[in-house]
Amino acid sequence: MGVIVFVAFVFAAIGLLHLYLWKRLVRDTTRPGRWRRAGTVAALVLGVLVPTTMVGTRMGQWWLAWPGYLWLAVMFYLIVVLVLLEIPMLGAKLALRRRRRTATVPAEPALVGAGGPPAEPPARATPDHSPDRRLLLARGAAIFAGLTATGVSGYGIRSALGPPQLDRVTIPLARLPRAMDGMRVALVSDIHLGPLRGRGHTERIVRMINDMDADVVAVVGDMVDGSVEELGAAAAPLEGLRSRHGAYFVTGNHEYFSGYQQWIDEVARLGLRPLRNERLEIEGLDLAGVNDLAGEDYQDGPDFAKTFDGRDPSRPVVLLAHQPVQAGNAARYGVDLQLSGHTHGGQMVPWNLMVRLEQPVVSGLGTVDGTKVYVTNGAGFWGPPVRVGAPPQVTLVELNSQ
Q1: What is the pLDDT of residues 127-137, one digit of tens each?
Q2: Which pLDDT belongs to residue 115?
Q3: Which region among 127-141, 154-168, 361-375 has the lowest average model confidence (pLDDT)?
Q4: Could you tell me if 402 and 173 are in contact, meaning their C-beta atoms sit under 8 angstroms apart?
Q5: Closest Cα partner for 364 from 355, 352, 373, 356?
Q6: Closest CA to 188 of 128, 237, 230, 116
Q7: Rg of the chain over CA atoms, in angstroms?
């Protein structure tokens, strides 16, 4: 029942957003006639395209991904720009109305009696040309919004489809033994193999990680958007990952939408060790991993008590957890550092402001209840192949003793 309500809400929201776009881009910019009818049909088709893409790609109709998700990106930025223009547009409309009310011309003079002085002429309003001016104003706003949305989306496509940037971050841990000073963790999240990303994307990420010469590789969830049957070949290059102490994997929410148990088995077959609410010792460090919160709907959620049962509290612990919000629980178990993804860094500014309402850290290094949390932007994307203000990222985390 909850899923039905959520889907109904999403579809209703998509409909209302397209109604807003139709009003601002079609109704306000055209007079009744064939152009308005054509614009209305286009708005209806695009409105249907978005939910069709969301449902169709889940059913294997991946050909829908490019047109559907590209329109989703352009639609997002059209709405952002048009909403920002609402206040100046309102001011311009009020100015036009005020000008119309105050503009007058003299009427024919009227005489009062024979030889008397002419009476004051009554005021007569000028012809009302404000509809033409409002039409011109609406068209200008629509053109500006269209050019801005397509320009920003084009920039975002180039960023999203380009190589991930390599970020390096040094994080001091108070309990890290001197002997482990400089330990290097190659961190990657949100690879999102699927309709728009395949084997070449994986191969590029593996090359980047292997060039880091890391001690540990951590893949912190949302690796795939599809089944092993669909994406097994695309994930296969992960078998080539190299590091001194191995490569490790924790589930993200998208694994649970893609047949998580099959992917756990496949990841293990490729040589990555799944950390499923468990902990292991690497020299003087505890490396732990918990399942994603989405696993709770599949009776496979995170279990912090099991993960940290019997742990030596004098040893530092680094936790792999897909969502930053899990740091609240991690702090209660004395975790020194949590490595996460999930947020995509917001992926498309200003969407990062919405992500901040849900997650305590959106990108980079932060602190939650005394536990340090580092969040990588992720190496892929979900939905629109667009990244604005949050480039794709693979991170080399170096741990230093204090």
Answers
A1: 445 678 889 99
A2: 53
A3: 127-141
A4: yes
A5: 373
A6: 237
A7: 29
What would the mean pLDDT of 253-282 be, rounded to a whole number?
A: 97
Q: What is the pLDDT of residue 128?
A: 47
Q: How far apart are CA 336 and CA 299, in angstroms?
A: 27
Under 8 Å between Cβ of 57 and 78: no
User: Given this model, what pLDDT does residue 93 score?
Assistant: 75
Q: How far apart are the C-alpha atoms of 254 and 235, rounded to whole Å?
A: 15
State how far Cα 259 lies from the chain centre.
23
Q: Which helix (H) or strand (E) holds 2?
A: helix 2-22
Instruction: Say what the pLDDT of residue 59 is.
Output: 87
Strand ranges across the sheet with 393-401: 165-173, 393-401, 183-188, 216-220, 247-250, 273-274
Distance CA 325, CA 334 (A): 15
Residue 76 has pLDDT above 70, yes or no: yes
Structure tokens that stand for 18 in this block: 């397209």
Distances 129 to 86, 88, 89, 104 between C-alpha atoms, Å: 22, 20, 17, 13
Tokens of 292: 């994603």
Q: In angstroms, rounded to a whole number, what is the distance separating the alpha carbons of residues 237 and 234? A: 7
318 bridge partner residues:
287, 337
Q: What is the pLDDT of residue 98?
A: 75
Rounded distance, CA 146 to CA 141, Å? 8
Per-residue pLDDT, averaged over 330-345, amounts to 97
% of the chain beyond a pLDDT of 70: 91
Residue 397: both structure tokens together: 């985390």
The answer to whether residues 186 and 214 touch, using CB atoms and an 8 Å cutoff, is: yes
Alpha helix locations (H) across 120-198?
Answer: 130-161
CATH 3.60.21.10 for domain 164-401: yes
Which residue intervals of the chain bear CATH 3.60.21.10? 164-401
Residue of 196, 198, 247, 189 whose CA lies nearest to 223: 189
Which pLDDT band, with edges at 50, 70 and 90, does 2 fall under?
A: low
